[in-house]
UniProtKB/TrEMBL annotation:
Residues 18-103 form the Dinitrogenase iron-molybdenum cofactor biosynthesis domain. SUPFAM superfamilies: Nitrogenase accessory factor-like (SSF53146). This is Putative Fe-Mo cluster-binding protein, NifX family. It comes from the Bacteria. Gene3D superfamilies: Dinitrogenase iron-molybdenum cofactor biosynthesis domain. InterPro entries: Di-Nase_FeMo-co_biosynth, DiNase_FeMo-co_biosyn_sf, NifX/NifY_domain.
Length: 127
């Protein structure tokens, strides 16, 4: 991991490190943005998700790009949004759905290098 990284975690209200993780990035309440610097949490911010119609996943992708996100951690993602994240240079990391119950656990996984980058053959169908 680079010395500084801004990671987006799809979150349930109210966001922050203790917030629950949303299982669907496109329809999450908000994103918790964590700046990881030298292996530690340097800052925590939240940004509300934007309204978008089904198939309009570019709206949250662009929102995260505009907020400076360099990575996102998801439990699954469709092929189209995965491609969109790639096009705006945001890395998509996969976390197993079991065992991680809050944003802090996802941040710890990123710091510890436990999540692999997702590839197009790992995308969910039907999104």
């Amino acid at each position: 991991m680079t010395s500084s990284l801004v990671v987006a975690i799809p979150s349930n209200n109210p966001g922050g490190l203790e917030a629950g993780i949303s299982e669907h990035f496109g329809h999450c309440d908000l994103f918790t943005l964590i700046k990881i610097q030298e292996g530690k949490v340097a800052s925590v911010e939240t940004v509300s998700n934007v309204e978008h119609a089904e198939g309009g996943c570019m709206a949250p992708v662009q929102l995260l790009k505009d907020q400076g996100a360099q990575a996102i951690v998801v439990g699954g993602i469709g092929g189209r949004p995965l491609q969109m994240f790639s096009e705006v240079s945001i890395d998509v990391y996969y976390r197993a759905k079991g065992g991680l119950n809050n944003v802090q656990a996802a941040v710890n996984g990123m710091i510890d290098g436990k999540f692999p980058i997702m590839h197009s053959d790992q995308a969910c169908g039907g999104h």
